[in-house]
Amino acid sequence: MYLIGLTGGIASGKSTVSKRLAEFGCPIIDADLIAREVVEPGKPAWRKIKETFGADVFFPDGQLDRKQLGEIVFSDENKRNQLNTITHREIAKVMILAILKCFASGCQFAVLDVPLLFETKRWLSVVSKVVVVTCDDQTQLDRLMNRDDFSIEEAQKRINVQMPLAEKCKRATHIIDNSKDIKYLNSQVNDLVKQFQKSYEQWKIRSVLLSGLGMFIFTSIYLYNTLVK
Which UniProt keywords apply (predicted)? Predict the structure, then answer.
């Protein structure tokens, strides 16, 4: 099995591409979804956020007030780094377990849907391909303002804390342009899935892993015969 990184910019349409890939039967490991799970009331990250940012970033029922927390961290880089430190470790634990489950079930590949793939660099070393979902700057700004009811200043602030889409595209192995209609987007995703399904990358990786396993078994037997018998 090989891993594909899926990323983009805020409001670029990455989630739409992720859903389309899932419709094709591609296993998706969604970092955003996992990020919501790890901050549910009572979980370690939830407790740490409460200790660090106080009770003001929570609703009376204990659920995290994401808008309130977002206003804090997007205005202060140090606080944003604090939040990332709290959540990333917990997110990574869940993602690693999901990857192992995909591998054990014989998946050809799995898609890691990670919004900040380039910014955090945490997962770059394990993915074989990187898909960037992009759109033009004005479309991104308009979508974000309409989606989250942000002012132009609020929307631009959230865009600016991420790596520019143009720079992400330079680092990608595959690019999906989401500046046009859904039909055009679907056509690109369809072509991409066909490429992934034809890839022999999984056999290369499995061969390496099996070779390593074989070497481990051989070494174990040799040491047992030499040192134990």
Answer: ATP-binding, Nucleotide-binding
